[in-house]
Each structure stands twice: as C-alpha cells, then as structure tokens.
Amino acid sequence: MTSIHAQRRQRFLERLGGVAAVIPAAPQVTHHADCEYPFRQNSDFWYLTGFDEPDAVALLLPHRPPGERFVLFVHPREASAEVWTGFRWGSEGAVEQFGADLAHPLSELAERLADYLSGAEGIAFRIGKHPQVEPLVLSAWARQLDRAPRTGVAALGLVAPCPMLHALRLRKQPEELERMREACRISAEAHERAREVVRPGLNERQVQAVIEQHFLEQGARGPAYGSIVAGGDNACVLHYTANNALLRDGDLLLIDAGCSLGDYYNGDITRTFPVNGRFSAEQRQLYELVLAAQEAAVATVAPGQTAEAVHATAVRVLVEGLVELGLLSGEVDGIIERGAYRHLYMHRTGHWLGLDVHDVGAYRLGEHPQELEPGIVLTVEPGLYVSDRLPVPEDQPAIDERWKGIGIRIEDDVAVTEHGHELLTAAALKAPAAMQRD
Ligand code: GLY
Ligand code: MN
Ligand code: MN
Questions:
Q1: What 3-state class would DSSP assign to 98?
Q2: What is the CATH number of the domain that holds 243?
Q3: Which of 100, 134, 167 is the last residue of a domain?
Q4: Are residues 160 and 53 in the same domain?
Q5: pLDDT tens-digit series, residues 310-328
Q6: What does the pLDDT read at residue 144?
Q7: CA gap 260, 264 in Å, rounded
Q8: Which residue CA neighbors atom 4 of ligand 1 most closely?
Q9: How many other C-beta atoms lie within 10 A of the C-beta of residue 88?
Q10: What mean pLDDT do residues 127-149 have?
C-alpha cells in the first residue's frame, strides 16, 4: 500500500502550497488501570502514511527540497519494549518500508520540530485534538515568531489541515472503493448469518457474537463501531449498544453492524426483521414504508445530487406514508416544514462513509451543499421509531398502543458513480419476503 500513500502525500503537498503540515498518529487509549483498548490509528495519519503504530508524528514539508518533504517521528526499536507490546518498525523501517525521506525517534521531536518547520509560510495542525503534540507545535511556532524580527521569516499562520486533507478523503480512489466493497461484502454476509440464527429466547448478545465472529473469521479487525443488536423497543434507542436483552416472540430485531478491515475501511449496514419470522400487520406496514423511503432515497444518489436531497426524498416518502396510516395528520408540506414528524424520525438519512464510519468531508461549503461526485460514498438509512420517548407535537395524533415498540431502520452503503450509484451492500437482503421465514 506504500505507493498509494505516496500518491496521497504528493496530492496533499500540492494543496499545502508553502504551508508545512504536522499530522499526529493516535495514542494508545487506556481502557482501565494499565489495560489499553486495541489500537486504532488516526484516519488522517493512516491515509497519508499507512503506518500503524501509536504516537508517531508525520511532517509534510512542501517548503523543503525533494527528498526532505516527508519526515516521520516514531517509537524506536527497543527489545525491552517490543517484548511487551510487539514489533516496531523504528526509524529505519519508517524510511525503508513506509517511504519516509527522513525518520527520527519520537524523543527528538521537541528539539527538531522548529528546524523542520522553519521557512514554511504557515503551519497546518489541528488544534484541540492532539494534546501530546500540540504544546510542541505551539512552542516551535512561538520560537519562530520571537525570532522573526532578526531572522526576517516566520510561519505567519496556524491553519487547520482538515479542509485540504478531508476534501481528498471524501473522494475515494478506485483502490479505496475496492476495499469498501470488501468491507461491505463481509458486513452483508454477517447480517445474512445473523438472520438465519435468530429465534425467540436468544439473547441479543448471542446474535452480536454471530456477527462479530464472522467479521473476525473473514479477516476483518472487528466491528467498525459498537454493534447495535436491538430487540423490540430497544430499537427506538438510536445508539443502543447494551445488547443484553432476550429476543421476544412478536418483536422486531434491528441490527446495525459493520466490520472494519485491517486498513480501516468500514461497512455500516442496518437490517430489521421479525424475531419469529413473521411480521405483524403493523410491523409490515411500517417496514414497507421505511423500505419505500430507503429505496426512493437510494435512487436519488447520482452526481450533481446532494445528501440534503437524499434526506428530503426519504422524509417525504415517510411523511406521506405516516399520514396515510394515521400516525401523522395534516398537509404533507406543512408537516415537513414544521418538522412535525420528528418524534417518529429524528435523525438524518445518512453520512459520508470511509476510513471513519461517520467520515470526514464537508456537507456544506458556506451556502452551497456539497454535490455528490463519483467516488463519494454515503450511507442511506431512514427509519421509524415509535415509542413514548419524545413528546407528540400538539397538532399531531396520539400514538395508538398497537404501533408502540416498533423501531425500524434500513441502511445501505452507496458509492456515487459516473452516471448514478453502486449499492455496495446489496448482498444484505431487505425485501419483506426475505426478512420472513416459516
Ligand atoms: N452505525 C452508525 C450509523 O449508522 O451511523
Ligand atoms: Mn450509518
Ligand atoms: Mn449504522
């Protein structure tokens, strides 16, 4: 993967102009006491380097001559540390395997940073996110400013690297789309397996185990986010991750789960189906409505459209259907304008997907919504959540008991193509007939 990272660095360096960028890796995060969470690399750092060790710092230095523009600071090789936490590449590996022009031990960052940044027109560094590295960057910058009256040069501004870097990350390269197809394939298969095993009396956690076992068996790192396995009314809690209730005969089961690959590309799929294999009349009506909204929203995904338009399509189909079912009343446009449907559908219809599950990239550029372009990947995930948690707006009907406890979401991952879109998660079935069994 080194060459793809080298191409990305080249494109990022071009965008930086004369500004030097400091991009830190993620640290290890403590779980409790001296135990740590499994390491998860920072996606910006990964995108540019493919280097999967904690605490490293990448410098991208467009103001330096070729052969000095990519510098990595890394943990050094050290037998006494590696015997505990495993192999490290060290400075030599950073140069030989990861294409760094120069590499140094992390302990030298404080003394070397100011020199490397010297001569840059500005410094691109994300303030507020990297507490270990931030004081070093600020102090290197301050030293330049202190000396500027005598040296005549200093980086004048501290800017955020995000707009430049995240505009690149938003548009996936063909190699990235290939990896996302793989993440979606594994994620879709896991949903199919889960539906095969679900029966009344199982615990939500047992279904989570089937899904996550499949992720691991297929070579993924594991779940891309906390898997949501939510029976019945639990599905009306959008970020339900307790996953410890028994699945009841007559309830629906909502599963929102996707895997993360070794190189951090993710799937993000939601399916909802009856625990006992048969929809009740109310469940089926709402399921068909969410599916109609989801399919209409997916159909709008094409170059020149916007995520806003995808959302608006889903909302309109949902509101029209809810009025027909008597769960909303009044004129559709007015209900949409007033948001008088939000006690039943309270989230957006999707998000960008990539190295981060809620991926980077602006949805709006000032007044203008970001237009969909080939290479952008987004989720399309409308739902309906019928419970007493949110108050019913004054002008809307009280909810009949027979609808309560029904939570449904249907989520696919969709890549924008030259002329339309590619449904990356088509292998996870969603037709009502496929959600049932005898
Ligand atoms: N699984 C998180 C989401 O759907 O946004
Ligand atoms: Mn999602
Ligand atoms: Mn999801």
A1: coil
A2: 3.90.230.10
A3: 167
A4: yes
A5: 999 999 999 999 999 999 9
A6: 86
A7: 5
A8: 268
A9: 18
A10: 93
Residue of 193, 174, 195, 90 whose CA lies nearest to 422: 174
Q: Mutation test of ligand 1: which of 211, 239, 352, 381 has the most ligand atoms closer than 8 Å to its C-beta?
A: 381
- 197 and 142 in one domain? no
| Residues forming the active site | 34, 239, 256, 268, 347, 351, 358, 381, 385, 409, 411
Cα separation, 270 vs 291, in Å, equals 12
Residue 151, amino acid: T
Instruction: Write down the H helix ranges in 276-397.
Output: 281-299, 307-325, 332-338
pLDDT in tens, 86-120: 999 999 999 999 999 999 999 999 999 999 999 99
Which one, of 112, 3, 95, 104, lies nearest residue 56 by Cα? Answer: 104
- Is the pLDDT at 407 greater than 90? The verdict is yes
> In percent, how much of the chain has pLDDT > 90?
95
Q: Which two tokens stand for residue 381?
A: 């995930």
Query: If we measure between CA atoms, which residue out of 289, 307, 291, 385 comes closest to residue 346?
Result: 385
DSSP 276-292: TS---HHHHHHHHHHHH
Is 421 within 8 Å of 414 (Cβ atoms)?
yes
Residue 146: CB atoms within 10 A of its CB come to 11
Decide: 212 in ligand 1 pocket, CB within 6 A.
no
* Lowest-pLDDT range of 136-145, 254-263, 419-428: 136-145
Classify residue 55 by burial, with Cβ atoms within 10 Å: 0-12, 13-18, 19+. middle
Partners of residue 352 on adjacent β-strands = 378
What mean pLDDT comes out for the span 8-16?
97
Q: How far apart are CA 17 and CA 62, in angstroms?
A: 7
pTM: 0.97
Confidence of residue 338 (pLDDT cuts 50, 70, 90): very high
What is the span of the domain harbouring residue 190?
Answer: 171-435
Rg of the chain over Cα atoms, rounded to whole angstroms, equals 25
Q: How many domains does the chain have?
A: 2
d(CA 164, CA 236): 37
Contacts of 242 (CB under 8 A, 6+ apart): 204, 234
Structure tokens, 387: 């419970």
Q: For ligand 1, is residue 225 a contact (CB within 6 Å)?
A: yes
Q: Are 312 and 382 in contact (CB under 8 A)?
A: no
Task: Classify residue 203 by its DSSP letter.
Answer: B
- Does residue 1 surpass a pLDDT of 60? no
The two structure tokens encoding residue 211: 């899904």
Confidence of residue 2 (pLDDT cuts 50, 70, 90): low
